[in-house]
Amino acid sequence: MPSMDAVVEFLRRLPEEIRRVGGSLPWRLGLLVFALVLNFGFYLPSLPEATPRTDVPGLDKAVHLLVFAFTVFAAGRVLAPRKRFPVGWVVIAAVVHAGLIELVQLVALAERSGDLADLLFDVVGIALGVAAWAGERVLRRASVQHQVEPE
């Protein structure tokens, strides 16, 4: 386990690392906060009565997949702008969160139910989020190399 000093040093370096890769810390943090707010919906006892209902098959699964992909992508952009290692912690936290959602829905929310299929879609979303994060890094590196190479 990393020491508290190592964690503090890591967090202190993040703004400079984000600037170095050409990113904006406020935009990246804003995107992450938005993604995290979307996750609160998984813990609501039920949708508010005024919420329009849709009978679109699979919509619940699509929401799980997209929210997890978006959250992991946004967290990776903030916590791992240059190095791969912190993304592993993001993945671990996301998998634990996915399991916790289903456990809370199964045990504590009478109008909701835990669903293994939701958990599967959460994990697929996590994988897609990591793939999007990695794809952005590859594209950024290719763009930087293309700008450096003389034509």
Count of discrete structural domains: 1
Low-confidence stretches: none
How many alpha or pi helices?
A: 5
Report the C-alpha radius of gyration, rounded: 18 Å
Helix content: over 70%
Q: Provide the residue-averaged pLDDT.
A: 85
Outline, from the CA principal axes?
Answer: elongated
Element order: H for helix, E for strand? HHHHH
Salient structural properties:
151 residues, mainly alpha, 72% helix, elongated
Short description:
The chain is mainly alpha-helical and 151 residues long. It has helices at 4-20, 25-39, 59-79, 85-107, 116-148.
Provide a descriptive summary of the structure in words.
- The protein is mainly alpha-helical and 151 residues long.
- The chain has one domain (4-44, 56-148).
- Helix content is 72%, strand content 0%.
- It has five helices and no strands.
- Helix 2 packs antiparallel against helix 3 (59-79) and helix 3 crosses helix 5 (116-148).
- The radius of gyration is 18 Å and the shape is elongated.
